[in-house]
Amino acid sequence: QVQLVESGGGLVQAGDSLRLSCAASGRTPSSYTMGWFRQAPGKEREFVVAISWSGDTTISTDSVKGRFTISRDNAKSTAYLQMNSLKPEDTAVYYCAAGPFLRSTLSAYGYWGQGTQVTVSS
């Protein structure tokens, strides 16, 4: 079984930066695609960004292009989300996920963390 634990969330001002971490443990986490999703109050969980198992390919939603960057360190079994120029609309619980394929759909990811809260004030 794969387990994922997110950390790094917090309360920041608009324009600030945060770096989220996702620590993985269990069977073959380093061979999996890693992705980040987010869910705001009253909203559906949405795709943010993902990275291939090799780290050479990434995909992201348009709203975060140029601001958010995903990376991974397989030696540490950890994925990261660098969030710059944060906006109030980025406020959400951010979830780390792992799956066998590079996709933007929730169904592609079979393993999920419990989430970390990111709140951006204006």
Kindly state the percentage of residues in helix: under 10%
Radius of gyration (Å): 13 Å
- How do the SSEs run, as a string of H and E? EEEEEEEEEEE
* C-alpha geometry: globular
Class by SSE composition:
mainly beta
Mean pLDDT: 95
Which ranges are low-confidence, i.e. pLDDT below 50, for 5 or more consecutive residues? none
Account of the protein in words:
- This protein is mostly beta strands and 122 residues long.
- The protein is built from no helices and 11 strands.
- Strands 2, 4, 5, 6, 9, 10 and 11 form a 7-stranded mixed beta sheet that branches. It has a 4-stranded antiparallel beta sheet with strand order 1-3-8-7, with no helix packed on it.
- β7 and β8 form a beta hairpin.
- The chain is globular, with a radius of gyration of 13 Å.
- The termini are far apart.
- The mean pLDDT is 95.
Q: What's the gist of this structure?
A:
By secondary structure, this protein is mostly beta strands.
Q: Which helices and strands occur, and which strands form pairs?
A:
Blueprint: E1 3-7, E2 10-13, E3 18-25, E4 33-39, E5 46-51, E6 58-60, E7 68-73, E8 78-83, E9 92-99, E10 111-112, E11 116-121
Parallel strand pairs: 2-11
Antiparallel strand pairs: 1-3, 3-8, 4-5, 4-9, 5-6, 7-8, 9-10, 9-11
Give structural attributes.
four-stranded antiparallel β-sheet; 122 residues; mainly beta
